[in-house]
Write a structure and sequence with these properties.
The chain is mainly alpha-helical. The chain is 79% helix and 0% strand. α1 packs across α8, α5 packs antiparallel against α6 and α7 packs antiparallel against α8. The longest helix is centred in the last third of the chain and has 39 residues.
Length: 429
């Protein structure tokens, strides 16, 4: 399929596109508190030792990443991915209710159990939801629009999750408790919209072969391996500034009071520019469009390198540009995975085998989660190596270099790799 096919008119009505994307909002809402607020909540409200807290969080997150391919393979072996979503959502809702309301005693066991329940529900719902979207799209253009709808709602969910606890209460524990009580209601409402209003699904034959054989077979796909390589390099470039931005704003810009506004601008920009990336992809192809977004991010990091104390409005431009690039990062590579999965599935069905969209997205989600871990594992030790100390005057020079120049290097490398492999990556588009 050539890139010109993306330009063809698509048949999915807008109301069905929005219905499919709606579930992305509560799923993204669940992710942000788990990664951002839970460590502080259990350290303060439950008075847990930081060493124990860190060990439990690390163990739960590694297990969460490791099971994604297995959940993807399980998803391929069910007749209806929607049933798996229905199974996953109660686990996610109960897990969030428990996780964000720690008890006065027994907090370590409570944290571990509620974290595992939350991760199971979130990961199973996410993998099945993504694979379902790949199967709903009948061509590259439809799959791009479905992915854009899902990720656009997801960005709105991130903004809502970042602001809602503070609106509910100035106290972190009370705000998160209120958030946890509202979350199941929102999850039920938007999941019902998605399951009832999405485009009708075609009948599918569940996979029946070896689970581990299918997972291994996905990794033997040359195009997918190269797409994963670009995704890793590009993902680290995106995760590095996400890990360090609050340090940068506080100690380089000396504008800590603006942190919330910068983050809001970043995510709102991601939502606002999503339609433009879809239009660009329709005209020039997903890989060239993705590369263009990487170059926009490179410009933003180069701009940030020259900033210093008090440069609030110039950094707002950085947030605007990097947020715009985020929209493409979330939409275009995931649409390429959906195309690969459906293209390989079509080939497999032609010879009497089953599709493996779940396995593709299982590996994809594992790598996405490892990108966050790699970014933290790379950037934080480097900060220590260059002598940076949070809040200490005169130590922020190294922070600025790591925040700006490392992402610039990784983004440039990702763009070069994507350009070099563009024909392989667009093999089905």
């Amino acid at each position: 399929m050539s890139s010109s096919s993306i330009a063809q008119a698509v048949a999915i009505p807008r109301r069905q596109l929005f219905a499919y994307g709606a579930l992305g909002l509560p799923l993204a809402m669940a992710a942000l508190p788990v990664y951002v607020h839970v460590p502080r909540l259990y350290a303060e409200a439950a008075d847990m030792r930081l060493s124990l807290l860190g060990a439990l969080l690390l163990a739960a997150r590694l297990l969460d990443a490791a099971i994604d391919p297995l959940l993807g393979g399980w998803s391929d072996r069910t007749a209806s991915r929607q049933r798996l979503i229905l199974l996953a959502l109660p686990c996610l809702a109960l897990g969030m209710l428990a996780l964000l309301q720690p008890p006065a005693s027994g907090a370590p066991w409570w944290l571990l159990a509620s974290m595992l329940l939350t991760y199971f529900g979130f990961s199973l719902a996410s993998v099945a939801y993504q694979a379902w979207g790949a199967e709903l799209g009948r061509d590259a253009g439809e799959r791009t629009r479905l992915t854009a709808s899902r990720e656009g709602f997801g960005l709105l969910g991130v903004v809502l999750a970042a602001t809602l606890p503070g609106l509910l209460s100035p106290d972190l524990a009370r705000g998160l408790s209120g958030f946890a009580q509202l979350f199941p209601l929102l999850l039920i409402a938007l999941a019902a919209w998605t399951l009832a209003g999405s485009p009708p699904s075609a009948a599918r034959t569940p996979a029946s072969g070896s689970l581990f054989g299918d997972l291994r077979g996905v990794l033997e796909d040359r195009a997918f391996r190269r797409l994963l390589a670009v995704f890793v390099v590009n993902g680290i470039a995106a995760a590095l500034p996400a890990t360090l931005v609050l340090f940068y704003v506080a100690d380089v810009l000396q504008a800590e009071a603006w942190s919330g506004a910068f983050l809001a601008l970043y995510f709102v920009s991601g939502v606002a520019f999503l339609p433009l990336w879809v239009i660009l992809a329709r005209r020039v192809g997903r890989v060239p469009g993705w590369i263009a977004s990487m170059l926009v991010a490179v410009v933003s990091f180069a701009w940030a390198w020259g900033l210093g104390a008090g440069d609030v409005w110039p950094f707002a431009v950085v947030c605007l540009l990097s947020g715009a690039a985020l929209g493409a990062d979330l939409t275009l590579p995931a649409a390429l995975v959906a195309d690969l999965a459906e293209h390989r599935g079509g080939v497999a069905r032609a010879v009497g085998k089953s599709a493996r969209a779940g396995a593709y997205f299982g590996w994809w989600n594992l790598v996405a989660k490892l990108n966050l871990a790699l970014a933290a594992g790379l950037s934080l030790p480097l900060l220590d190596l260059v002598g940076y100390q949070p809040g200490v005057v005169g130590t922020s020079g190294g922070l600025a270099a790591i925040y700006c120049l490392l992402p610039l290097l990784f983004k440039t490398t990702a763009a070069v790799l994507a350009w070099r492999w563009r024909k392989v990556l667009e093999v089905v588009s």
